[in-house]
Amino acid sequence: MKKLFFGFVVSLILAGCGTSVPLSDVPVTDATAKPVSTSGAPVPAATSTGVAPVDLTQSTAPMAPGLEKRVVYFDYDSFVIKPEFQSLIAEHARLIKAQAGRKAIIEGHTDERGGREYNLALGQKRAEAVVGALTVLGVSGAQLEAVSFGKEKPAAQGADEAVYAKNRRAEIRYQ
Amino acid sequence: MTRHFFALCFSVFLFAASGVSHAQFRVEVSGVGLTQVPIVISAFKGEAGSPQKVSSIVQADLERSGQFRPVAVAGTALDEVTLPNLSVFRQVGSDALVVGSVTKLADGRFDVRFRLWDVVKGQELGGQSFAVSASDLRLAAHRVADFVYEKLTGDKGVFSTRIAYVTKVGQRFQLWVADADGENALPALASAESIISPAWSPDGNQLAYVSFESRKPVVYVHNVSTGKRRLIANFKGSNSAPAWSPDGKTIAVTLSLGGGSQLYLLNAEGGEPKRLMQSGSIDTEPVFSPDGQRIYFVSDRGGSPQIYRASVSGQNAERVTFTGTYNISPTLSPDGRWMAYISRAGGAFRLNVMELDSGAVRVISDTAADESPSFAPNGKLLVYASQVQGREALMTSTLDGRVKARLSGQSGDIREPHWGPFSR
Q: How far apart are CA A137 and CA A126, in angstroms?
C-alpha cells in the first residue's frame, strides 16, 4: 500500500514538473491528415428528387450503340458538331427518347494544351453542344446532363496533333 | 572571399530524406537575387547526432527566399552560448551569423536553441529555444529561419507554412499537404480520378478542391486534420474553381448549372448558389482580392481568355490583362499590389507578374508549360507547376524571377500547388 502511494506521489510530482517552457511559444502544428480512401460511390445529386437507377441490362429497349459510336470529335478551339457526326447523334436521340427513364451523361474533353479550369469550361461547351443537338431532335433536357473533364481524362497520351485530335471530344454515356 | 563562397553562390543541392513523406524531394536553387544578405549558418552543436540537420534546413529556407546568400565557413559547430569570433566572419564577407544547438532531453524531445549575430555591428540580434519532438524538428528549423528572415528583412517568413498539391502516379491521384519546402508531405485524399484546384481556407484548416471521383467535377471542402469532408457543390453539370473569401465565409465557384460556365457565390457551409454575373461567355477561375471587395476572374467575353475584375456584387466588370491573347489563372499578393498569372505567347504558357497600379507586366519564367501559380502569404514568393525535362515539377520563384527553386518528386507528376496561409 505504501509503495503504491509513494509511486502515485512520485508520478504526480513528475507530471507537475515538465521541462521548462520554451522562451518563445512555438505551437506545434499537427499536419497529420487522415488519408481518405477512394470513394467509388456515386455522389447524390443536390437537385435530383429520388431518381431510380436504370439498369440497361434489364431494359427491353435495344442495346445502346457500341463504344466506337458514342464519341463526337471536334476541331481545335471549336464546339461545332461536324456533319459527319449527325447520324451518331440522331441514333442516340432515338435511343434516349425510346425510354423516358433513360439518362445520358455527355462528357466533354479537351486536348492537353492550356490551363485546367479554362479547359474544363471548354470541355463543357463541347458537352453542351452535343446536348443541344440532342434536344433539337426532341430529347428532353431532363434526360441529359452535360459535364466536363477538361484535359483530365485524355483518350490518348502524347503531345502531337494526332493525339490532340483524339482528345478533343464529347462522349455519350448511359447511367 | 573563400572558394566555398563561390561554390555555394550559384547552386545548392540538398537531399533531405524523410521517413514520413512518400515523395522525397530535392531542392535546387538557381539564380542570383538583386540584394542578398550574405549569411553564415553554422552547423548547430549536437545536430549531427539528431534526426534532422537543423542548420541545413535553415540554410535551404533562406536560400530559397532569394534574399540570402549562404557563405560557407569550415569549422566546428558553434552553439548559442559561446561568444563567436566575429572577425572570422567579417573576413569572409558575411553580414550575419546563426549559431545554435540541438540537445536531446530526458523525455526524448529535443531542445533546439539558436542565436543570430549582426557580424558588421558585432551585436547579437536575439535568439529563441524550442522543445520539440523528433517529428517536429523540421518545424523548429523553419521557425529559426522565420526569425532570421524577419529580423534581417523586416518581412514575415513563410518557412513554417504549408502547401497543398496533387500528384498523379499512373492512374492514382493524391492530394498532399506538405511543408513549404515540400517535405513532410501527408496525403489528404487518394482517388482513381483526377483532383484539381485545391484552395486553402484563410484559416489554414480546410482545403476546397474539385474531385472527379463520381465521374463529374464536384467541389468538396475537406478538413485537413480530421479528414472529414463536405460536398458543397454537386449541381447539375460541372462544378469547379473554388475560391475562398478573405473572411472564410464565402466560396466562389464556377458552375454550369445555368448553362455554360458562370460564376456563383456559395456560403462556405453549403447551400444554394447565388449567381454573381450573367454573361454569354466562359467566366471562371474566380479569386477574391485581399480586401474582399473585388473578384478577379478569367473570361473570354472579349473573344479569348483574359483576366477581369468586378465588385463582389458582380458589378463594374473591367478588363485587367491587355497583353497577349490568352491570360488565365490569376493569383493576388496579400498586399493587393501584384497579380501573377499564366500567359500564352508563341505556344508557350509562362508565368507573368503584373504590377496592378501601373499595369506593367514582366514575364518571369522561360519554361513552356507553367500552370497554377500561387502567392506565398508574405507576397514575396510564388509557387507554380512547370515541366522540366518532360516531367511535371513544382517551382518557387521570387517576384522578379531572379531566384528560382525546384521542388521535384521522385516519381509521378506533380501539379496544382496552392500556398497555405500563416499559421495563427
A: 17
User: Does position B376 have pLDDT exceeding 70, yes or no?
Assistant: yes
pLDDT for position A8: 52
- Per-residue pLDDT averaged across B42-60, rounded? 95
The answer to the question of residue A132 being in a domain is: yes
Rounded Cα distance, B53 and B51, in Å: 7
β-pairing verdict for B294-299 and B306-311? antiparallel
Of A13-17, A95-99, A133-137, B281-285, which gets the smallest average pLDDT? A13-17
Are the CB atoms for B157 and B378 separated by under 8 Å? yes
Measured between alpha carbons, how far is B332 from B334 in angstroms, rounded to an integer? Answer: 6
Fill in the DSSP letter of residue B391: E
What chain B residue is nearest to A28 in terms of C-alpha separation?
B136
DSSP track, B264-320: EEEETT----EE----SS-EEEEEE-TTSSEEEEEE-TTSS-EEEEEETTS-S-EE-
pLDDT digits (tens, 9 = 90+) for B155-200: 999 999 999 999 999 999 999 999 999 888 989 999 999 999 999 9
Query: Could you tell me if B270 and B283 are in contact, meaning their C-beta atoms sit under 8 angstroms apart?
Result: no
Angle at B332 between CA B347 and CA B259, to 5 degrees: 70
pTM of the predicted protein model: 0.84
Say whether A115 and B285 touch across the interface (CB within 8 A).
yes
Residues of A in Cβ contact (< 8 Å) with B197: 116-117
Distance from CA of A61 to the nearest CA of B (A): 25
Name residues 320-349 of chain B within 8 A of A (Cβ).
326, 328-329, 342, 344, 349
A147 closest CB neighbour out of B231, B238, B329: B238
Domain CATH for A158? 3.30.1330.60
Q: Which of A17, A25, A26 to mutate to test the interface with B (most CBs of B within 10 A)?
A: A26
Cβ–Cβ gap B197/A117 under 8 Å = yes
**Contact between chains at A120 and B238 (C-beta distance less than 8 A):** yes
- What number of C-beta contacts closer than 8 Å exist between A and B? 181
Q: Would residue A167 count as lying in a domain?
A: yes
Domain that holds residue A88: 70-174
Q: How far apart are CA B332 and CA B338, in angstroms?
A: 6
Break chain B into its structural domains and give their ranges. 3-153, 162-419
Interchain contact B279–A (C-beta under 8 A): no
Domain B3-153 has CATH 3.40.50.80: no
**What pLDDT score does B31 carry?**
83
Task: For A25-34, write each residue's pLDDT tens digit.
Answer: 333 333 333 3
> pLDDT class for B74, splitting at 50, 70, 90?
confident
- Which CATH number describes the domain made up of B162-419? 2.120.10.30
Q: Is residue A93 part of a domain?
A: yes
Cα dihedral sign for B127, B132, B136, B137?
positive
ipTM of the complex: 0.90
As a whole number of angstroms, the distance between CA B65 and CA B4 comes to 20
From the list B109, B140, B371, the residue facing A115 with the nearest CB is B371
Residues of A in contact with B423 (CB under 8 A): 27, 29
Given its phi and psi angles, is residue B144 left (phi above 0), alpha (psi -120 to 50 degrees) or beta? alpha
- Nearest by CB to residue A121, choosing from B187, B214, B261, is B261
| CA nearest to B329, candidates B337, A159, B317, B320 | B320
